[in-house]
Amino acid sequence: MTTTQTPALKRVAAMRERFADRRAARREGADDDRGIVSAFDLRRRGVRAGMRGVHVFLFAGLVIAGLGPILWLAKSAVTPTQDTLTQPMALWPNGIDWANLSTAWNDIHIDQYFFNTVVIALGAWFFQLFVATTAGYALSVLRPKYAPILNGLVLATLFIPAVVLLVPLYLTIVNPPLVGRDFSLLNNYLAVWLPMAANAFNILIVKRFFDNLPREVFEAARTDGAGPFRMFWSIVLPMSKPILGVVSVFAVIAAWKDFLWPLLVLPNPAVQPLSVRLPAVQSQTELDVFLAALAISTIIPIAMFLVFQGVFLRSAGLGGAVKG
Amino acid sequence: MTMTEQAPPDEAAPPAGRPPVRDARAPRRGIRSWIRGGGLSTLIFLLPMLFVFGVFSWSPIVQSVVMSLQVTNLLDPPEWVGLDNYIAVLNDPLLGKAVLNTLYFAALALLFGFPLPLFMAVLMSEVRRGKGFYSALAYLPVVVPPVVAVLLWKFFYAGGENGVFNTVLGWVGIPPQPWLQDAATAMPSLVIEATWAAAGGSIIIYLAALLSVPPELYDAAEVDGAGIWKKVWHVTLPQLRGILFIMLILQVIATAQVFLEPYLFTGGGPNNATITVLLLIYKYAFQNSLGGDYGEATALSVMLAVVLALFSWLYFKLTDRWSTS
Asked: Which class in CATH covers the domain with range B87-319?
C-alpha cells in the first residue's frame, strides 16, 4: 500500500472493506453458532490479526504437542539405536531399520502380548455391555419398586475412590467367596473382565439413555404381546446403538489402558497384556526394538480413534455432561 | 449431579399392596402373581449387575473397612486388632513424605493442568475453520496407552546432552536438565507428562460446555459495549463455573490417587522424592518381603478415602453459593 493515497482511493478501499465485512457477517449469521468474538469485533484490524495469530498458535502448538511425540515414536521405531541415541531429533535417520518391527513382534513376543490385550479388551467389552444394558433396562424400563434403592447403591460406588477397592478386591480374586479354598481367579481373565463390568458410570449413562426412549413404543410392544426379553432384544437394544457405541469405546480403551490391576491379578507373563509386559521387558531389550514395541502397542488405539473419531469426541464430551 | 427419580409407573398392583389374606395358599399365590407381573424376569435382568457389583464392588468396599481393623495373611483366620493398623501407618516416617509429595503433585497438576485446557478450549471454540481437526489433535495424547506414554517420555527425559528434551533445550541455549534424576526436578517432570496425557480430555469437555453458552448473552454484553476480554470475563467464565468447579474437584480426587507416573518413571525415587500415598499403599500390600501387610494397606486407603470425602464435602459446601446448580 502506498503512503500517498488520494481521497478517492481511500474511499474505494473503505467501501471494499465494508462489503467484505457484510459478506463475513452474512456467513456468520448463516451458521448461527457465534462465540465470544463477534462479526463486529472481526471488523477491527487488530482483532483479525489476533485471530490469525490464534490459528497459527493452535496449529503449531497442537501439532507439536499432540502429534509430535507420536510421529517421533513412529520414526524412532524404524531407526537404528545409535541414530536415536546420538541424534534423537534428527528429522531423517541415516538408515531405516524395518527389522525392528519384526524383531519386536516375534522375538520379544509382542505378538503374544498383543493377542492377550485384544482378548482382555474384547472380554471387558462384552461383560461391560452385558451388565450395563441388562441393568439399565431393568432399572429404566421394567422399573421394579426397589429400583431407587439399587440406583442409589450403584451411584454410591461412583463416589468411592478406586483405591479403597484395591486390596480387598485383590483378595477377592485370590480367594473368591462361596467357592472352595483351592480355587483362585489369579491368571484368569475373568479376574480382569468381571471387576471392570462393575462400572457404575456405564449403568448411569445407559439408564439415562433408556429413560429418554419413547414410552409409547414399549406400550405398543406390550400390547402386541412382546415379553420383557423380546422387548429388550428386539426393541430396546436396536434403538440404543448410539449409547452402545459410547460404552463400547469406553470399555475397549479402558481395558487397553489398564495397568495396575492386570499387573496384580495376572502374575504369569504368558497371559499378561502389553501394558504390563512393556515395562517388564524394557531392561532386556535393545532400544530400537523396544521403541518399535511401543509403536506397535499404540497402533490399535490410534487406529480406533481415527476411525471412530466422532464417537470418541462425543463420548469425551458426554463424560463432562454427566459430571456436570 | 441431578438424578430425576420418577415414581414407579402404575403397573399391576404389587402383592404387598393387597389386603392380607389368612390363607395357607396366599404366599404361593403372591409369588405366582409376582412372577406373572414380571417380577421374576426383572430379577433375571438385574442378576448380572447384582452379581458383579455384589462380589466386585459392594462387598470389597465393606471389606476394606473390616480389613483395616484386622491382621490378615491369607493363611490364618484374620485377627481383630482395633486401630493398630491405623496407628502403625500414622507412625510410618514415610507417610509424611508421601502425603507431602501427593499434595505437591496435586498442586503442580492444578497449576499446569487446570488453566491450560480451559485456555486452549476457549481459543479452539473461536476459530471458524478446522475445529474438528484441532479437537482430534488435542485428543490424540489421551488415546496413547498411558504405559506407552510414560515409557516414551522416560526416554524423552533422558539426561545428558543427547536426551530428546535436552537436545531441544540446546537449540535455544538452555543447558541440559537432570529431569527425573534430580529430586528437585523429578516431580515437575512427572506432572508435565501427566498434563500432556490428560489435557485433551478436559479440552473436549470444555468445548462441549462452551457450546451451551447462550449466544444472546454475548449479544447483550456487546450492546453494553463489552470488548472481547470483558466478554470472556463476564460471560464465558461465569457460564462455565459449574463445570469448572466439578472438573477441579475431580482433578484433585484423581491426582490424590496418582500411581502410574511415579511407579513407572521413578519408582518413588530419587531418594523418595516422588513416593505418593498410593505408591505407599502398593508397597505395604504388594512389595513386602514379609508377605502383604493388607491391614495397613487398607487402613491407609480408608484414611485417604475419608480425607477425600471430607475435602469434597467441604469444597461443595464452600462453592455452593457460587455454583450454578
From this structure: mainly alpha
